[in-house]
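A common beginner's mistake is to predict each chain separately and then try to dock the pieces by hand. The better habit, illustrated here, is to supply every component at once so that their relative placement is modeled jointly.
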Amino acid sequence: MSQLDSASSEATGSMWEAGLWRENPVFVQVLGMCPALAVSNSARNALAMGLATCAVLVLSNTVVACIRSLIPRQVRIACYILVIATFVTCIDYAIQAISLDLHRALGAFISLIVVNCLILGRAESFASKSTMSAAAIDGASMGLGFTLALFMIGAVREVAGSGSLFGISLFGPNFQPWVIMLLPSGGFFALAAWLLVFAAWKERQRPRLQPLEGRAQ
Amino acid sequence: MSGPSSPILAIRTSPHLVRGSRVDWIMLQVLIALSPALVFAACAFGAAAMLVIGVSVIACLAMEALWSGSSGRTLRDGSALVTAVLYALTLPPGLPLWMVAVGGVVSIWLGKAIFGGLGCNPFNPALVGRAFLQAAFPSAMTNWLPSFSVGRFSSVPESTLALPFLRPVYDARTSATPLAAWKFDAETTDSMDLLLGLTSGSLGETSSALLLLGGLYLIARNVMSWRVPVSIGISVALVSGLLRWADPQSYASPVFMLFSGGLMLGSLFMATDLVGSPMTSRGCWLYGALIGVLVVSIRAFGGMPEGVMYAILLANATTPLIDQWIRPRPFGAPGGARA
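With all components supplied together, the output reads:
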């Protein structure tokens, strides 16, 4: 609590970096896999799902941080879920009002944001121990990190699975779509491909450190 | 077993009985057993079949060379070649060559290499490649050329030469496989045609007789377990016989079930995969029975006409369980005398 009371700009910057990159919810923490794999079959669905989760995460983090001293420790999980469920219901109606097509495409997965372990995890591990502003920034950075990851998976699946991005055809009418990428297994392939990219990138980072250590000795 | 020239006292760790067969020898036997079916496929479907087999071999060997690195040890044991040939035999003859290459890469990479190479792969690599193609390109994988068409050696079907990543164009010469004809049009095919392979279908699923010949060679050479194919055959015949007996109108006869589709190829050469099948004899019986029940269930009640591939892949997944469940009792262990 103490280190975040004075939310200096440096700490805020590090929180943004953590959510978007260093502790990315999908690619590093591997949280919230159910929506990440289930509704990422097109870039539009993935982006909508990510933004909906992000909105719920920001709101629930803020409220949980706000009422953190009022919540009895024994029933905190139930209280968090109640807060999260309230905002998910709001978002559910909001999406229904904005686009009924999108609401149908996302289906039950909007309601299932309630049980997304990412949101409960941030409430438990961060919002319940920090100030409102820090919790809001954390919610936004984690939520945008989740959105980014979902969009990356969804874009790969849509480009390979239907040869388009946001419904715009990329390769012309003769492109042979890889139907498997639109099936549930395609979600695993796309996620695995991105994890492979990140693992390879981290491997490349590692050898650069070794000569420095050797020189220090 | 010590001859007169061996030392009086030899100390060795177990196993004490070795057969001396090596991976490359086993793979050579499998290739010999598959060669009649390969030659028949080339005769029945002509240039298209030869191109499919060639591209599949090139793709699989290239992938194997890539991941085995500079040593090339796993390339020389022939297992990638067997995978390539088996994979080619499961493909429809008019499949675009770029799809053949994609599936070949997938079968070696996702089917074998990522698990740690030969001996660590839970699923049959050739079937993994085919399953990927079936899910990725369902329309191309269910488009069949007729066998023994005129001019099959002089011309290549347009779909075979489709440019990479582009949709293949099919000419009118496609036809239905016996299983699809039975499932969707309720037409039965003559049993003799099925046995001789005068029907359309995948490269290697048309000639049951030649596949049986190859299988018998492997059994005579003691390379594969005869229990698995026998058990699959018995269970397919029993289950489909029961269905036929209950309702002869809507279910096919056991003979048709046994000799149509990929059952011969799958049961003789893929289900018997040394890595993917159980270790014990009783486990093999159970494994084969499971495949047989799954094959008939998928064919009779499923949405697809053919189910051998999924049946074998599912049974492969149960192999570790079967091996854990059915264990040979160590000699002298308590638990009563073995009958």
